[in-house]
Task: structure prediction
Amino acid sequence: MLKNATEYREELQEQYERIKYDDKYKFYFANSYRSDNFDLRTELDKDCIEQVSVNQDNIVIGYMLAKVEKDWNVVIDLRILNFKQKDNITFAKDLFIFLQNLFVVEGFRKLQFKCIVGNPIEKMYIKYIQRYGGNIVGVFHNSVKLIDGKIYDYTLYEVFKEDFDRIIKKK
Result:
């Protein structure tokens, strides 16, 4: 179930402490350093939408952020973090609802987001954009340095509301 992230600040901090140096999560952070705190972006930047995915016991299992450019009516970046790493039906359903709400409830006309090449979730993103009429905008080479000291490429994706709506109506 999706909930407002600010209500789960302490639990997000605990989850962050558990994973911040775990190699499995290096792609999420997309940088070569870790801060001490898991900062909720909405407290720093009003142009963000943040939610958490919680299980039936009200335990945080994931975090989702959409960075938005309201003047353009575009989501300019997504940050998606699954704390369980394995197949997680609740998280997957919540993620779909989160993305759908960006179009349907919030009314954005386009989602654009990036993924570091080599991230295990990259395959899911490619399936998502193929399923919902999205595009690979391009690959940016040697663009991101991660905590392992290596430089990585990243891929930029986009999905337009009209393509998403057309596909959803067919289902």
Remarks:
- The mean pLDDT is 92.
- Helices lie at 9-19, 26-29, 89-104, 122-131, 161-170.
- The beta strands are 2-4, 48-54, 60-69, 74-82, 110-116, 135-145, 151-160.
